[in-house]
Amino acid sequence: MPGQMKMENESDQITVDLFVLGGGPGGYFAAGLAGQEGLNVVLAEKNKIGGVCLNEGCIPSKSLLHSAKICSHSKDALEYGITGAPLVLDQKAVIKRKNKIVNTLVQGVKMQMRQGHVTVLEDEARVVGRSNGRIHLSVSDQLYTATNLIIATGSIPIIPPIQGIDDGIAKGYLLTNREALDLQVIPQRLVVIGGGAIGLEMASYYHSAGSDVIVIEMLDHIGGAIDRTIAALLQRSLEKKGIQIALGAKAMEIHEDRVIYEQNGETFTTQSDFVLLSVGRRPSIENNGFETIQLYTDKGRIVTDRQCRTNIPGVYAIGDVNGRCMLAHVAYREAHVAVNTILSRRDTMRYDAVPSVIYTQPEVASVGMTEEEAKLKGIAYKKISIPFQYSGRFMAETAGESSLCQMLFSADQKYLIGCHLLGPYTSEFITIASVFIEKEMTVDEMKEIIFPHPTVSEVLREAIFQLRATN
Fold first, then answer.
1. Measured distance CA(319)–CA(153) in Å, rounded
2. Architecture (CATH level 2) of domain 356-464
3. What is the pLDDT at residue 9?
4. pLDDT confidence of residue 11
5. Burial state string for 287-316 with b = 16 or more CB within 10 A and e = fewer than 16
6. More confidently predicted of 3 and 260
7. CB-based contacts of 1: which residues, under 8 Å, 6+ apart?
8. Delimiting residues of CATH 3.50.50.60 domain(s) in the chain
9. Band of residue 66 on the pLDDT scale cut at 50, 70, 90
10. Each residue of 180-210: pLDDT tens digit?
């Protein structure tokens, strides 16, 4: 039978209830949950426990961005009645602090695994086959057989076919997010190829640190799938700070001291010391042995259902590798659903109320449908747009920062279908809008929620109360 195999020396195998392939957010969370439930769990991670998010993505980037935020605030000190010279970033000290934070959190994850009685293998694991309803894996010279397998191998950067990329990687002047988070120097000139979340965050950081930054983006807007009005306001804010943004532009050649790109049929050259490549990520499915069990993939991702099950019984795929929604917090929830399914508990993934954030200054936070999506689907809606000036705390703590609260409600003004925010602290309160959508709360029910005062989150309350009563 296809996908079946006979394992020799089965007595030499280690048998487990669950094998987790990949130690990023989804992987270690799944392993910990299953271990707490009494399952015999093995987690294998070939690089670093914590995955990209903890070691070279979400957490280290936020550490750098917070340092930049403090430095940026000092430049506006006079607005707050504070005198003195602006602060200056010490890049080596910033990186040292980042590394300390990452190390502390990695050790914390390892402690969680020990407390959950999870066996952690810091080694490469490969699927080698399937027989008698079990999955077989190899780690170094040791064979494992598992009743269940959770694949959480994450994603890798997309490397587009741009002339000079290979030479740039070899010589070290072309960076991915990994190298950008470990630079010991502040480049005088940085070119960022890609205007999505990672590219904009790194552009924001290095500009605050003193670099001349240009972002080259192929689309006619920055921020990927975010609301177009929010994207335009964010672009205006970043350009006002001094970041150059070239839209509808395509990088053609990368050299050690310059990048050549095309825009509107014209060719331009911009000088550079380093180039950050940030055009997206793709699921990591190669060289894992998945073909030995005939795992079904489509367009480079592992296909899953709403319980995170693949086409192979007992095999699940969570996080970036299934390509559904490549965000760490989605991987956490998918891990929960997969483990519940393994334990025969009913659970289902829902993707309609997933919040997303871009941690620039100001922040962008979104959940639900954008206007573009609603129009494309033919969904009628009522839009409420107000600035954050409705919040007293925003006025007290900012100095003319760009802001917007845009909420989309169903045409009958009864339900929230989308929320898009530009301003400070939005990453901390977008969850409120997520709950409104996830729980299908009516506007009247939303109006009953008490917001603490003064908070920036009150801008949501102000927007909601601009709708008529539906009783």
1. 8
2. 2-Layer Sandwich (3.30)
3. 55
4. 60
5. ebbbebbebebeeebbbbeebbbbebebbb
6. 260
7. none
8. 10-156+282-342, 165-279
9. very high
10. 999 999 999 999 999 999 999 999 999 999 9
Residue spans of alpha helices (H) in 242-318: none
**CA atoms of 366 and 441, how far apart (whole Å):** 18
Q: How far is CA 302 from the centre of its chain?
A: 19
Q: Long-range contact list for 158-161, CB < 8 A, 24+ apart?
A: 158/279, 158/280, 158/281, 158/282, 159/277, 160/251, 160/277, 160/279
CB burial of 251-283 (b: ≥16 within 10 Å; e: otherwise) equals beebbeeebbbeeeeeeeebebbbbbbbbbbbb
Residues annotated as catalytic are 453
What would the two tokens of residue 297 be? Answer: 């993939």
Closest CA to 334 of 297, 358, 305: 305
pTM of the model: 0.94
Cis peptide before 157 (omega within 30 of 0): no
Is domain 10-156+282-342 classified as CATH 2.40.30.170?
A: no
- Amino acid making up residue 356: S
CB of 234 closer than 8 Å to CB of 207: no
Lowest mean pLDDT among 4-8, 77-81, 302-306, 369-373: 4-8
Please say if the pLDDT value at position 76 is more than 90: no
